[in-house]
Amino acid sequence: MRERDNAGMQQPDRRGAHAKLALAPMALAAVVVVLVAVLVAGGQDGTIVVQRVLTGLAPSVGAKVRWQRAPATSIIETSRQGAVLGLLVSSSSAGGTAVVAGDRLEFYDPSDNTIYETTETALRRTTGLQELPYGLGVGTFGDSGKRVSRPAPSFIPGQASIYRQELEAGLARTGPTVRLDGRTVLELLPVRRPAAPVPLRNLIELRTSVYVTPQSYDPVEQVLTTGPYRNQRSFYERWLTYRVLPATTANLRLLSLRTLHPHPRVVRGARTYLRALQRSLGERV
Fold this sequence. Notes:
12% of the residues lie in helices and 36% in strands. The protein is built from five helices and 16 strands. The strands form two sheets. Strands 1, 2, 3, 4, 5, 6, 7, 8, 11, 12, 13, 14, 15 and 16 form a 14-stranded mixed β-sheet that branches. Strands 9-10 form a two-stranded antiparallel ribbon. A hairpin with a 4-residue loop joins strand 7 and strand 8. About 20% of the residues have low confidence.
């Protein structure tokens, strides 16, 4: 087991140089359903990756970072080959916990202590949608009704962090070591920066700063800065916890809503599931 716990860190040290564009950011914003999307069969000796990420926003250059009150948690089960087999995402700001495992979809609503259950198949049939809302799909079905895997849109954590994978793929290179809130971290730099369209040149800049733990390349912080030069915003992701666990029976319980909430009411059905999910996101149902 590898563990990185950064909970004691304070506000980011802005003295480290920013890397310009490029590493695919970890999709862990503080919403209840943010899914990396692929499902294929995998070995039994995979991993359980536990991440707690605090997000923040600096509305302009030099402004103080406005941090979310609570971090978002994601727990991902991956196969030995690095495919996503199951995912739990929880955010107190969005108000619930979602689980996707194969065709099964679950959502826990703390306001009524209820687990809402359905399947991707039933949700598609009920809504008539080819693409499910909120990025819920973790695969697609062919005409035969069998699940067809599709390529992942980005690297996913597993035996190695996504940043180590990007380094090995030649998408990034190691930069200098810098100090971030009193600890030494390694900055990662993009291999190259795509050219901006001519009308946007000198108006909008996109920069991604990535800081990782030396040797392991486990994520510590990512900062995305974008916008017109005079009004640039910076979006922060700070890993408070990054743990890689073996996919044992005990660790798989981390993805079980019934383990987390042992005495809930259970409601099954595609429409009730969708309404509960919409309520958690503050949408009218």
